[in-house]
């Protein structure tokens, strides 16, 4: 194995400290959440979140690549053209996907109520939904409550907001850092995320809302966003399914004490890597909290002919059902890994491939190594480990973060729709 | 829904009758199997099969697209250039994949022993293996037994051969038909197959050996082979993994009573569709007997813009973990189906999509239909049903045959390698 960095930010030493406050850690942001009973009128869990900036922002977002796009994604794609986004309204319990014109009206109604409550224009609000596909939003239980939600906004609202966007997540996910920049000055970046099911490269059912007080142009923000998403959220896979609702939003309001960040400057590089750090931590939280997941596994492909070959190999291994089943059983089954590399489409030579669990070699030149299987088992019995696949064919590297596949995942995902419909019928809602 | 045939052979009425005898149903073929203890020296299950033609053949084969190819596949790819294949020697219990030069030597040794026992040249023998990847063949337990195996050859050896190539299959798979052609004349086609795990379009861990006594040229056989494989084995998916060992072999020895089949003749079309019929029946047996499968589902995509769009959509739905989980739970979750269509890469318009379970509409124009969910549940509770996805965007159609994904599949696949190594260690074999 050579020592080429798999992560371009490994070379950039970003001094930072982890701080409290998640999506409200940066200066000038507030958040709040309430319970509207979106999934179930009787439930009391938080399911509607609001995040706001006290002043003007530049904002960028990336959305699902799924051609079936939720109504909220469509509305966001219109509103993001606006120059000064001030708020994100987000619900769990219903994805507002496959809901047609009614869905668009509902998403716009959520923006409108939010705008009215905050005294901004409707187009300054982004809207996100996550939950079941194909059912209309219970909008009459949502819009009348938004004024009350806006009144609860507070700079310490992060935890409630992180909780309100959860679906099958078992834990709220938030993270924030402060980065020194200038003389005794700094900027902050923080965010929240939700994940759990339908997680896969190219944006999956995941939402992540990130705020920063760094001062920078929209162009510079876009550049940093593309870079950081590609290094983080686009590298995670739980079940290979890309959802209809995925959205990552970054708002920056320029209220930091640090000076403005100029295009092409060393500071721009620091910002990019700081943003990546926050996204990567949130992405890892999503993977670790995947539906009924028991293992977190880094798939590191080294020395591929090209980056495209490295990506194909890493993604095929990260998505292979048989590989994920063997992770679940703590089985160091390198044969399944090499077979996934083989069908990945990556240009490889079987007889050059080395495979390691942790640092322990399982396969050497395409053949079984001399390592006793008990040594390999020690590695894969851990809840977190890495698999390194050295293709010995070039110098391109790629990492994917994946999980095992448990029988509990299958059981958990086997009756969502019927259960939801029957629950509604019992309550006289359909 | 329109009524364009999804299957080009629907229009060709091939009169046929189903006959006994599988891979030995056609005239001039024999088979046999013995137990060599390949996986486990103490086991008594059949694990080595031999299939022979009594006279000259033209033979064609298609192999895995996986770039990691088993040693036996490499040897077959050399030998298939030979004009007159006479035998197939096949074992279960070890895939002879990722076994390097030793693997090639072992595969050749199997051909050599077989050739000596039959009095043919080594290059007239094809060799196939299926089982675990990455362990050397216990060749000393195989080659000395091949003479004995050859002595057991009989025209009624089909059932033993079908059983000997099973791995995690629960049932042997064989099928044969007789097709009238000419005055009181006929040809026969029959075969055996094994499947179970690692099944996915583009050839998966599946082996299928088919024999026919039809008289036809190698070119015509190749054409029929490509057509029939594309309509059958390349449309099945159990877990989306393409194996290192997949092989389909068709031998034809021209011993039928029916006259020779000429290129471009109506008889050539009948042969092609008859071959497809046999392959399709074997393919369906493989899917129905997938590892821990409880459902057999036809994914029918209609009215796509192009065939490529139809294939992308059908394959994405057939492979989606979340869709397969919902099949397992008898959940008519059309939202997951449309979301898989959305990320498939097919060019679609969400608002045109209709989805049916059986003949019952679940989704109309991208929105939920008015059908009560109990009606849909009746369909998906059946062990076999179809899902029709009408894209209403063109006139290209495609079918994929898939299964549910059960929690038992995951448990079943979670510890193969460790279990195999530990079993070997206990017996002092490693």
What does this structure look like?
The structure is a homodimer of 430-residue chains. By secondary structure, chain A is of the alpha+beta class. Chain A has 2 domains: 9-288, L-amino peptidase D-ALA esterase/amidase (4-Layer Sandwich); 296-405, ArgJ beta chain, C-terminal domain (Ubiquitin-like (UB roll), Roll), CATH 3.10.20. Helices cover 31% and strands 23% of the residues of chain A. Chain A has 12 helices and 16 strands. Chain A has helices at residues 71-79, 100-118, 146-151, 158-164, 218-231, 266-288, 307-319, 321-328, 334-343, 373-380, 407-412, 416-426, and strands at residues 17-18, 29-34, 48-53, 58-63, 87-94, 125-132, 173-180, 186-194, 207-212, 247-252, 296-304, 354-357, 360-364, 367-368, 384-390, 396-403. In chain A, the strands form 3 sheets. The first copy, chain A, has a 6-stranded mixed beta sheet with strand order 1-7-8-9-10-4, with helices on both faces. Chain A is globular and about 70 Å long. Chains A and B meet through helix 8, helix 9, strand 14, helix 11 and helix 12 of A and helix 8, helix 9, strand 14, helix 11 and helix 12 of B.
